[in-house]
Amino acid sequence: MKTVEINMRPTDIKGIKFNNSFMAKPGEPVKMEVKTNVGIKLNPAAPTIASVVVLFSARDEKETILLEVETVTMVSVNTFVDNLDKVIKDNYINTIMMAVNEKIRVLATMVGLNITVPAVKFEYSDESDSIDADIFRNM
């Protein structure tokens, strides 16, 4: 079995869109719809490189408040891996989403929104006693 080295660059913010035409009293709760779309894009010209693109959007019911954030995380491996997108999804997407969530939290605070992003979930099994165990899997 060969050992593959996987490198993840820090998550970068590719784009931000913010609109706030909402007038409310301070402390008044606002119902927000929060969505996240994740895509893993492979590079056919360089099969050892992939990018994980996350599009996050939060908007209120009347669409007077809008925050959209697009992030990119580059992932590379030192040798060819079959189904690199599946390897990233199964083993590394949780780590990437933690970095994305932190970026979103900081940006939301900067623009004055109190957005709570969902927690990233991990799975633990008793197989973790083995050094070869896959203890963290995407749920």
CATH first level: Alpha Beta
What's the end-to-end separation, in Å? 26 Å
Helix content range of the residues, please? 10-25%
- Count of discrete domains: 1
Q: Output the radius of gyration.
A: 18 Å
Question: Given the structure, what is the number of helices?
Answer: 2
Q: Number of DSSP strands? A: 5
Order of helices and strands: EEEEEHH
The low-confidence parts are: 128-139
Structural class: alpha+beta
**Cα shape:** elongated
CATH fold annotation: Bacterial Protein-export protein SecB
Describe the structure.
A hairpin with a 4-residue loop joins strand 4 and strand 5. 19% of the residues lie in helices and 35% in strands. The chain has helices at 84-91, 93-110, and strands spanning 6-8, 12-20, 32-42, 49-60, 65-77. It is elongated. It is built from two helices and five strands. The model is unreliable at 128-139 (pLDDT under 50). It has a single domain (6-23, 30-129), classed as SecB-like (Bacterial Protein-export protein SecB), CATH 3.10.420.10. Strands 1, 2, 3, 4 and 5 form a five-stranded antiparallel sheet that branches. The longest helix has 18 residues, at 93-110. The chain has 139 residues and is of the alpha+beta class.
